[in-house]
Amino acid sequence: MKMELIKVTPRGYCKGVVRAISMAKQARLDYPNENIYVLGMLVHNHHVVEALKRIGIIPLDEPHKTRAQLLERIDHGVVIFTAHGVSPQVINTAKAKGLICLDATCPDVLKTQAAVIEHLEKGYEVLYIGKLGHPEAEAICSLSPAVHLIENEADLKALSIEKPLFVTNQTTMSVFDIESLFQTIKAYCPTALFCEEICNATRIRQEAIARLKDIDVLYVVGDRFSNNSNRLAQIAKEHGIPHVYLIDDVFAIHSAQLKEAKRVAVTSGASTPTYVTNQVIDYLEHYEENKKYPVFDLDLLL
Ligand code: SF4
User: Fold this and answer.
1) 12-41 pLDDT per residue, tens
2) Which of 109, 148, 204, 253 is most deeply packed, by most CB within 10 A?
3) For residues 253 and 179, what is the distance between their CA atoms, to the nearest angstrom?
């Protein structure tokens, strides 16, 4: 029997990622003679990072280094702050060094930062539900010692807070996890103020996954560093899809994954290029065992 392919919509690039990539491309045109650096991965997809390198946009990215530490490596040229946001201290340091600063922070991330700053100024302690080591969480947690990163329920038990509480979250978390953690915090502190900040792009991609029925295999096309791609895979597993694969690109598809699969679905994270997802869809649409992989051309990606 022929395999049925379900192309989940919406999928792929969000507005914040489109904006960040077009800012980087424009920077190359505007500053042809300057070194252009990105503080971290411009968006969490290594194909995009490689394609940007080809036009001379240099990522400064080292595991476990903060944005402030990465900034120490440069003292001239253009620096782009990524879609995930950066703290005001880092922006001020970059300006003080005389760097040309371009801020690709997504407006949705800026909105969360503004809400946190507003409540810190009013004297609240902030519980920020996010992922340790993620740049979006790093930027917000570095605002003040009164911001506490919460990854799970266990982190709540370690806290003792006297002041009024403001609770918010990283934009790309699971809507289901956030709902459940908000309920737990409400039981522990009924007077807490809640502000759910899952961005619309994340929400509608996750809801589309939660609605899928009778799927044997789901491919989530996305980078392992992409929080929103990982959350799509997590939600698919939690909603009972038996085989879920987070794949970088078409080359990660193997016959063994598709044995006896009747209904196969494809989605992609908000930082996954359409070109990469389309190759996966095209490969699966004409799938046969031991099918040859297509040619991957990085120059077609930006
Ligand atoms: Fe902005 Fe959401 Fe896209 Fe992140 S996933 S860049 S917050 S729209």
Assistant:
1) 999 999 999 999 999 999 999 999 999 999
2) 109
3) 33
For the sheet containing 217-221, what is the strand order? Answer: 4-7, 263-268, 217-221, 243-247
Active site residue 136: yes
Which is the catalytic residue, given 4, 72, 118, 136? 136
* Residue 109 Cβ contacting ligand 1 at under 6 Å: yes
Burial class (CB in 10 A: 0-12, 13-18, 19+), 18: middle
| Closest to 6 (Cα-Cα) out of 197, 206, 288, 284 | 284
With 0.90 as the threshold, say if the pTM is over it: yes
Q: Is the CB of 17 within 6 Å of ligand 1?
A: yes
The response to whether residue 280 sits with its C-beta less than 6 Å from ligand 1 reads no
Secondary structure element (H or E) that encloses residue 194, with its range: strand 193-194
Using the predicted structure, report yes or no on whether residue 1 has a pLDDT greater than 80: no
Cα-to-centroid distance, 206 and ligand 1 (Å): 13
CA of 84 to the centre of ligand 1 (A): 8
